[in-house]
From TrEMBL:
Binds 1 FAD per dimer. This is Electron transfer flavoprotein alpha subunit apoprotein. Residues 3-188 form the Electron transfer flavoprotein alpha/beta-subunit N-terminal domain. It comes from Daejeonella lutea. Belongs to the ETF alpha-subunit/FixB family. It comes from the Bacteria.
Length: 323
């Protein structure tokens, strides 16, 4: 028995969320007194693969196949399933990212495994029971799911587990399972990046704004604050519906769910549908001119004031602090 972790890369480099998921998987392997094996798909350099040892992966399966150059979900799911069978892994762990959300159920079906997606904590393992805490109802509640299956798939929410070093010597093993044509029914012919900015689901810091900003021409104050913090930008639904900001920035029940370490909400009222996507943020700062705005009820820090006065001052203060 072993624990297998799927490690995603972006242009050959691992992201922070990858190290989070490896650290989490290592902790699960320690709880089960077993070994952690990682599987990487794509063109990733040896140093990058070896770096996974620092977080506890004893072996890294390296799949570098031209047929998998682009993300074809059926083929990736088959390869990861194949690796789990080869390594006799009863537990597969991956990030609850865009690709992880699609892969996890497919792999669970192939392995006939139970699935806990949106996991936020280490499993509780006692007297043959194996229970995982996960978010439910768009982050409005937590659920405890108990597995009844021998095989288990866990998809970990970003920013839910701290990166921990647990160094071991990682051996790299090339793994070249056959890719069936039935798994290659589509081919990605071109990928166009919508933006070079930090991807919202992975962002540790987010500056978000709503209708209180009055119009798209005022977003410079939000972007300047985000720039000085190294944060991603987000917005409420009406803002993206009005075309003030791109739809990729819309957070909430019908948009992206984020759980950054810091979420700064500027001129957003805090409607339940908005909170559904942001309430698992570690620290929430609300800037709103209405002291009765519902967002203040879930805020860790609140500033009652006009965004057009407060935000530039905050940006200047952070600049001064950093210099
Ligand atoms: P408003 O509600 O208009 O609030 C603007 C806020 O800005 C106010 O609190 C005001 O006091 C403040 N303000 C105004 N001027 C200033 C100033 N100068 N300085 C500081 N503060 C100022 N919404 C989402 O965001 N995400 C979703 O996923 C989502 N899904 C939905 C799904 C459904 C089925 C439905 C029915 C609604 C959904 N909504 C969603 C919409 C949601 O109900 C709210 O209407 C929306 O979140 C409000 O956006 P807002 O806070 O930007 O605007």
């Amino acid at each position: 028995m072993s624990v297998l972790v799927y490690v995603e890369n972006a242009d050959g480099k691992f992201k922070k969320s990858t190290y989070e998921v490896v650290s989490y998987a290592k902790s699960v392997a320690v709880l089960l007194n077993t070994e952690l094996i990682a599987i990487s798909i794509g063109d990733v350099g040896k140093d990058e693969l070896t770096s996974l040892g620092k977080f506890g992966a004893a072996k890294v399966l390296n799949v570098n196949n031209d047929k998998l150059k682009s993300f074809v979900i059926q083929a990736y799911a088959s390869v990861i399933t194949n690796a789990a069978n080869k390594e006799n892994s009863d537990i597969l762990i991956l990030a609850n990212s865009f690709s992880g959300k699609g892969l996890a159920p497919r792999i669970a079906v192939k392995l006939q495994a139970g699935l806990a997606d949106s996991a936020v904590d280490l499993p509780k393992i006692e007297n043959n029971s194996f229970t995982v805490k996960k978010t439910a109802f768009s982050g409005k509640a937590f659920a405890m799911v108990e597995f009844n299956s021998a095989k288990k798939v866990i998809a970990l929410n970003p920013n839910s587990y701290q990166v921990n070093e647990s160094p071991v010597e990682a051996t790299i093993e090339d793994f070249n399972p056959e890719i069936n044509n039935s798994d290659l029914r589509i081919e990605v012919t071109n990928v166009v990046r919508a933006t070079d900015k930090i991807a919202l689901p992975d962002a540790e810091l987010v500056v978000s704004a709503g209708r209180g900003l009055k119009g798209p021409e005022n977003w410079n104050i939000i972007e300047e604050l985000a720039d000085v913090l190294g944060a991603a930008t987000a917005c409420s639904k009406p803002v993206s519906d009005a075309g003030w900001r791109p739809h990729e920035e819309h957070v909430g029940q019908t948009g992206i769910a984020v759980s950054p370490n810091l979420y700064i909400a500027v001129g957003i009222s805090g409607a339940i549908q908005h909170l559904a996507g942001v309430s698992s943020s570690k620290t929430i700062v609300v800037i709103n001119k209405d002291p009765e705005a519902p967002f203040f009820k879930v805020a860790d820090y609140g500033i009652v004031g006009d965004a057009f006065e407060v935000v530039p001052k905050l940006t200047e203060a952070i600049k001064a602090y950093k210099s």
